[in-house]
């Protein structure tokens, strides 16, 4: 188990994503490196990269973190009670990009490694990650491109991986209290070690490396689409669902806050402008209603072809 090679990869991935995104956005991301004080409960270091009021991104954050703790937090031992109290190490890259243009979708991506060191036993490790797309106005070709890129990235690791991780994503990014998906999904996996360390690490790399091809063409395609106050208003309303999911269900957010992580970096994923309304629903026949009818439901987007009607 070579944790140094995972760290090197994650830092390189973060740099490549930021370089590619800056070329599309036209603005530079700021860098905020940090090291935890020796007396703090959680030790480690990280690098937060952020753009606010960019050319295409209203807010975009991409963070690397590598932390160590003496005791695993409750969110990490929920399915592994035998590891309660064990020292741990965790590292990953996590990003959320919130475009200004309502016709451009929000994107999330995360890849990570977790290792527990129970006393008197071999270290236990697992990988996790994925990416998902949250449109405000739906375009079939965007959803299809995103899912096909995910499918192609996972293909070398077994034909079962994409359908399995797509289904997992659909189930995970679901707001149970609302009874609706957060977006059109993508892929999600966690607690993955079945391919051994090297094979599991290779699969995680395939997912991380695919992000720029999955998302940036969509951002470039939609960032200059004309829009008005109606579209911005609906975008702010739908962003509220994003906030609800992150604060109520997201395992990474819960782990970071429970373990004493850096709050500023953990909550960097939040959109800058959000609205909530009481019992609001879109009018029938509107583009906003079409998002709910045609896109906020699990579909086999990778199989969609131009000209194909949605059932």
Your description of this structure?
Strands 1-2-3-4-5-6-9 form a seven-stranded antiparallel beta sheet. The chain has a two-stranded antiparallel sheet with strand order 7-8. The chain is an alpha+beta fold. A hairpin with a 7-residue loop joins strand 5 (106-116) and strand 6. The protein has helices spanning 3-25, 74-77, 140-154, 161-172, 196-222, 229-248, 251-258, 263-266, 287-295, and strands at 30-35, 42-52, 57-69, 88-99, 106-116, 124-134, 174-175, 180-181, 185-192. The chain is 39% helix and 24% strand. The longest helix has 27 residues, at 196-222. Helix 3 runs antiparallel to helix 5 (196-222). The protein is globular. It has nine helices and nine strands.
Features:
311 residues, two-stranded antiparallel ribbon
Gist?
The chain is an alpha+beta fold and 311 residues long.
CA gyration radius, whole angstroms: 19 Å
* Secondary structure: number of strands: 9
Q: What is the subunit arrangement here?
A: single chain
Q: What string gives the helices and strands in order?
A: HEEEHEEEHHEEEHHHHH
Widest sheet, order of strands: 1-2-3-4-5-6-9
In whole angstroms, the N-to-C terminal distance is: 47 Å
The major beta sheet can be summarized as: 7 strands, antiparallel
What structural class should be given to the helix and strand makeup? Answer: alpha+beta
Characterize the overall form.
globular
The unreliable regions are: none
In terms of DSSP E residues, the strand content is 15-25%
What do the pLDDT scores average to?
91
What is the share of helical residues?
25-40%
Tally of contiguous helical segments: 9
